[in-house]
Design a protein that fits this description.
Helix content is 38%, strand content 23%. It is an alpha+beta fold and 600 residues long.
């Protein structure tokens, strides 16, 4: 295993030799290397002054060197060289991330990197951003030789930042144990729209990898591919993540499955690390030693959430928020009569079950759709049994084909002390009432919506805290096309957008600030894949995205083994154009997989 340590002054001469061998690895001639030698030399007195560190392998051999030079808020990556025999083994990645970590500790907010042209792909992949200003002084002999030989250095920059304040508050600033109890959480609500075996829930339990920015252990109901966890750890710079999978055969109660294994339960609960579930359940409370509060999930109910929204708005102070009318109906035929009346009046309607996951139990009905289905009664006959809510449909930008997001969400959480924390806003992709994915990051939420979204979301957080709820929450909105937002529901659990926020926080701390992260719940695959070929595909997608200047992280791998195969994915970049291009490329490559591996 390679580790980073401080260099020693006595190593200066040997480190200079390593630097020169690394530079020669790119095929430079003797004259060029001689011109570079004075600038690349490490003297004994430089080791401390230039903050030089080395990478040392398990045999005690130095296989890389790096330096962090200058004073905050601006510093330079003066050296980053790897022994040629160790190139491609992750040594450069380890050293670069160590430099960024130390830069944060020093208060550096702008890290300048003058890259050898052969290393530009590496720095792009690590998240550094190319800039237009010249890389080296024209008076430098090495710079003059490089310019003459067409090998001028290329300047990059990175913006080192600490882990976001909200992320530190979420797990106390450290690592956590993640419990993928999606099925267990869903089972609390007797949602008739979900299948009895909860197969989708067990796929979505894979998102447990991302319940915080840096897990210590993952606890999962079904087996997951080892290649998947290894790639996720590599992409997000995690080490030492333990995986306990395959704990359930059929029943969705993951917390009880852990308790049924006393040694495992003692290991997880006795680690001193926080236990983070998808959502709170009575069984999780027993596992975590946390008292269950009756009614703490009451605002997971759509009608209860609607009532909460109304009470907040009654107090005033939210002019940018409008609440759609909602009616709870007694029976299916009463709902049919109301739907028929609204259809005759030319009004679109939203039918909702009291509880639903990712839009399950939500049906958007235009008058044309009702008539095409054979009328209101025919529509109701096709819906799952259970209580129904009838709600006004809020028209907006997307319904008119205008530019701008239609579906937004606010994420936050209430800590165990009852303090509400803001995480941020996201734009969701929703099709016919069903969630498909989300994008988070700087500038994602449009300026006209940001103030209203954050103020109302924070107000909901305070009310949830007062009600006794503790944990993650979100508030979903639709835009009405006139500059106002309509809140539609709360989710008292982690969600797809929350996963994107966790990954964005990790990437910002690992690679520098400014990441946009998109989670796509379902990327269709052109073939059903065995595990080895899934690993091969994901590795190829990671390499291809890196070449585009993006980061690819497979989020839900187990869908690849279904008869109609799919993947959940995360894609990150520093600009919307690159993010869109990377997602489109991933989708195209995933569909083309049939040609690579043959028919399913």
């Amino acid at each position: 295993m390679v580790k980073v340590r401080a260099a020693r002054p006595a190593e200066a001469e040997d480190l200079t030799g390593l630097v020169m061998r690394s530079k020669a690895h790119w095929g430079y001639d003797a004259a060029f290397l001689a011109a570079c030698a004075p600038e690349l030399r490490i003297r004994a007195g430089d080791v401390t002054a230039r903050r030089v560190v080395v990478a040392e392998n398990g045999r005690g051999e130095v296989v890389g060197v790096a330096s962090l030079e200058g004073t905050p808020p601006r510093a330079e990556l003066g050296l980053l060289f790897v022994e040629p025999s160790a190139v491609g083994q992750g040594v450069g990645r380890l050293l670069y991330r160590d430099v960024l970590r130390r830069a944060v500790e020093l208060g550096v907010r702008r890290l300048v990197i003058d890259s050898d042209p052969h290393a530009t792909g590496f720095y792009r992949a690590m998240g550094a951003v190319p800039v237009a200003e010249p890389a080296a002084s024209a008076a430098s002999p090495a710079a003059s030789a490089a310019e003459a030989g067409g090998t001028a250095l290329v300047r990059f920059e990175a913006a080192p930042v600490p882990l976001a304040d909200w992320a530190r508050a979420w797990t106390g600033g450290g690592r956590a144990v993640h419990l993928g109890n999606v099925g267990e959480f869903n089972a609390q609500f007797a949602d008739a729209t979900l299948d009895r075996e909860q197969r989708p829930a067990h796929h979505y339990a894979c998102l447990a990898a991302f319940y915080s920015p840096y897990p210590a252990a993952l606890v999962l109901p079904r087996p997951v591919p080892r290649g998947w966890t290894e790639l996720v750890c590599r992409q997000l710079g995690w080490t030492g993540v333990e995986v306990y999978d395959g704990l359930l055969d059929a029943d969705p109660g993951l917390a009880e499955a852990v308790r049924a294994r006393p040694a495992l339960a003692a290991l997880l609960t006795g680690s001193g690390l926080p236990l983070v579930p998808w959502g709170r359940t009575r069984a999780f409370g027993r596992l975590a030693g946390r008292p269950w509060r009756d009614g703490e999930l009451r605002y997971e109910s759509k009608s209860a959430a609607h009532g909460l929204f109304g009470r907040i708005l009654a107090d005033g102070g939210h002019p940018g928020i409008v609440l759609p009318r909602q009616w709870r109906v007694d029976g299916r035929w009463a709902a049919a009569r109301m739907l028929a009346a609204r259809t005759r009046a030319g009004e679109s309607t939203v039918l909702k079950s009291e509880h639903g996951v990712g839009g399950s139990g939500t049906t958007v009905l235009t008058p044309a759709r009702v008539r095409a289905a054979g009328g209101a009664r025919a529509v109701l006959r096709r819906l799952p049994r259970g209580p129904l809510l009838v709600e006004e449909y809020v028209g907006g930008a997307a319904s008119r084909g205008d530019e701008g997001p239609r579906d937004l969400t606010y994420d936050g959480f209430v800590d165990e002390a009852g303090r509400a924390h803001e995480v941020g806003g996201a734009v969701m992709e929703v099709a016919d009432g069903c969630y498909r994915g989300a994008t988070v990051g700087p500038g994602v939420v449009p300026g006209w919506a940001e103030k209203s979204l954050t103020a109302f979301g924070a107000a909901v957080g305070r009310e949830l805290a007062d009600s006794g709820y503790r944990g993650w929450f979100d508030v979903d909105f639709v835009a009405d096309g006139t500059g106002r937002l309509a809140p539609t529901e709360t989710n008292l659990r982690l969600t797809g957008p929350s996963i994107a926020f966790m990954v964005a926080a990790r990437l910002d701390a690992l690679r520098g600030a400014g990441h946009l992260v998109r989670i796509a719940d379902r990327v269709e695959l052109g073939a059903r894949l065995p595990e080895a070929q899934l690993d091969e595909l994901c590795a190829a997608l990671a390499r291809g995205c890196a070449e585009l200047g993006a980061v690819f992280v497979p989020a839900i791998p187990t869908g690849a083994f279904e008869p109609a195969p799919w993947l959940g994915v995360l894609v990150a970049a520093r600009g919307r154009e690159v993010l869109d291009a990377a997602e489109a490329w991933v989708r195209a490559e995933a569909l083309a997989v049939g040609a690579m591996f043959g028919p399913s």
